[in-house]
Write a structure and sequence with these properties.
The structure holds two protein chains of two kinds.
Chain A: H1 2-26, H2 29-45, H3 47-61, H4 67-99, E1 106-111, H5 124-131, E2 146-158, E3 161-173, H6 177-180, E4 185-189, E5 198-202, H7 203-208, E6 217-220, E7 223-232, E8 241-244, H8 245-251, E9 260-264, H9 271-280, E10 286-290, H10 291-335, H11 337-345, H12 350-380, E11 384-388, E12 394-398, H13 403-429, H14 433-438
Parallel strand pairs in A: 3-8, 5-7
Antiparallel strand pairs in A: 1-9, 1-10, 2-3, 2-9, 4-7, 5-8, 6-7, 11-12
Chain B: H1 4-11, H2 15-47, E1 54-59, E2 67-68, H3 71-76, E3 81-89, E4 92-93, E5 100-106, H4 110-113, E6 117-118, H5 121-129, E7 133-137, H6 138-144, E8 151-156, E9 167-178, E10 189-193, H7 194-200, E11 209-210, E12 212-217, H8 223-233, E13 241-245, H9 246-257, H10 260-289, H11 291-299, H12 304-340, H13 352-379, H14 382-386
Parallel strand pairs in B: 5-10, 7-9
Antiparallel strand pairs in B: 1-12, 1-13, 2-11, 3-5, 3-12, 4-5, 4-8, 6-9, 7-10, 8-9
Helix pairs in contact in B: 1-12, 2-9, 2-10, 2-12, 10-13, 12-13
The chains are: A alpha+beta, B alpha+beta.
Chain lengths: 440, 389
Amino acid sequence: MKSLKKFAIGLLAVLVVAVFLAIWIALPWPGIVALAIALAIWMAVTRRGKQTWEVTKVGLATVTQRLGSSSVVVVGIAGVVGVLVAMLAMSEGFAETLRSTGNDRTAIVLRGGSQAELNSILDRDSANVVIQAPGVKKDAQGKPIASGELVVVANLPRKGEPDSDSNVPIRGVSEDVWNLRDQVKIVQGRKFKPGLRELIVGKGALAQFEGLDVGKNIRLAGQTWTVVGVFESNDSLESELWGDTQSVASAYRRGSSVQSVTVLLDSPASFDAFKASLVADPRLKVDVTTTREYFGKQSEGLTKVLRAVGITVGIIMAIGAVFGALNTMFAAIQARAREIATLRAIGFRGIPVVVSVMLETMLLALLGGVIGAGIVWIVFNGYTASTLGANFSQVVFRFHVSTGLLWTGIKWALAIGFVGGLFPALRAARLPVTAALREL
Amino acid sequence: MKYLHLIWAALFRRKTRTFFTLVSILAAFLLFGMLDATRSAFSSGGDSVIGVDRLLTTSRYSIIQSLPASLSTRMQAVPGVKSVGYANWFGGIYQDPKNFVLSFAVSDNYLDIYHEIVLPPGQRKAFESTRTGAIVGEALAKRYGWKVGDKIPLQSTIFPQRNGDKTWPFDLVGIYKPAKGAANGTDQQFFFHHKYFEDANAFQTVGTTVGWYVVQLTSADKADSVAKAIDALSANSDHETKTQTEQAFNASFVKQLGDIGLIVSAIMGAVFFTLILLTGNTMAQAVRERTNELAVLKTIGFSSRSVLGMVLAEGMLLLLLGGILGLALATVVVPIVAKGSGGMLNLPPLGMQTWILGIVLMLVIGALVGALPAIRAMRLNIVDALAGR
């Protein structure tokens, strides 16, 4: 009978944990704040609550005596949260960089089935047809705002590693690009002049690759080019070097063909008409997408992989940390067995003891979560990294530790603390009073 | 060893605590196994021993630039060169843009140079005599359920056919097995004749250029001098080349994805730091509780050194138990993950190297976490300990 009861309580606890975790994951932050406030009110107003607060105070006061084992909970959870937040910040940073590169006001046209600019090719006639299509915005002179572009890949060494080779994208752009991509600002030097072998470099490329300072010469396809400016755009274009389409095409012997045409639309609504007219045109076989969709797609694969890896690693580490916390809290209760038994003997009920042990664990977990997420935020927020993107060339991106991610990290920490505290708390409440008092 | 039963008993003195600690250790080594498999998946191109006698010659300006086909005869004449093959990137996809196929148009002698591609003689013959013939690695064939004799339409994201069609028909004439020690991913490739590629290609230039050259050396130690001589052939031309060993090429390519090794070791650092702290704490607790027993052991004649040894051994045993279980679990889980990713994550099974490194780590961490309590136990003063001071 007794063992049956014990089993039932254990089963119930596991069920509570499962339900709690499910609710916890779904709960938005106002819900959790409300929960915390409700707990505070309960502790301030009701008799049981006041008792809980007193017991918790005793527990917290003795934490310093159990510094070694308490720090295990804190550091363990900080590790889990740190790794998780760092991996997610990497994935989020990459996705965000590509996402912000595109928008609904511009559309990109590639040869049908080519998927990325590198694989695409459009001859001059096709490019002209695209530019003249309905829905393309015209400037004051009535000329359509469009940029026929080429992306080639050059080998440049990474900063500080002169022997390394990285595929750095070089984009040939037409003059309309300044109206088309108004997020691009020159922050140093000047724009390149059409017809000359001049380049401007993105801030990201400048930070990652060797020899791109303004005034320096670099060799591309056997010719010498001069860097004349640095631009900022806060998206994946910052990974690139830009020059005039004609100059790039002649250096890489591409004739008059381009790889893609990007156009400014009258409005996002005119995309459908623009696309329909190009798809219906028998002279062309092209893929038409908004730039938002085009760049968004490029981030999908890697973002998914990074997220999956981050969460898998996080879950395995969390399992380890839960058992570490369980160990620590069981030991803590062991150490305080007499004290808890005394409290029970003088009339404290089970609830205050359970809640206070849980509170103590979750406070330790919260501290761990804050430390882990904080370290990652300090070290990695804005950290620049690069990887190979869809064009077989480097995409420079920054880790982005958003408040949302910090919040996710803290939620994980509290969840680990909850599981790690619940079972020891139940043990504390069920401690046989007489036996505990007799023990040394 | 004769004290094993004592150590064992000490370890399971408190079953719950030991169990919890073991689960934590297990989790840490499960992660270690999985991450090490990932790391070796990315580095295996760089340390496979099979390709040591091969050089790759690519355009110095960028990997997307092709090289003139006429270079081949001049390269062949360089002393130290056994044979020169070439290949072109095809950018194939099968049915859906997500089904990316690692496909190459290759020269006729390519299979002789890549001797790790093992094809049954009959299929080899069939490949040589079929213009539209293709051979694929067994893993790739399995992924799409291809059999010898199948007609496979592959769409190129780069090259249209002369008639404007983007889909190229191929006849699957062989399925090869990669030889032992081949680079990871060798069994995922698709090869077909460069001749077919040239003839049917809409881009007329394809006949006069190749994507890159593969140079087989007469001996591996000539790599440096041959590479220099080949690059000298086209120095100051508009198609300068860069020749390096296949390993160097693969390593630099992987590096471009990101520093996988660094990420993996950073995560492992965090995991093992936590593990040491956690297990160290458990060990300290366990020894503190047993102060009395240890004093009794010393009283009945155990030397201080054997007490030290026993506590150290306890730590190592704890780590070994949890760690071996963790690595065993990783051995089971890694192939499942690789399969589940549908060929996206091409993880090799856990190798001997991972196991050896793992066991060394277990012993080191075990000794580390046992050290402090062990020294305490060794220095234990019998009288004080028995008196509970």
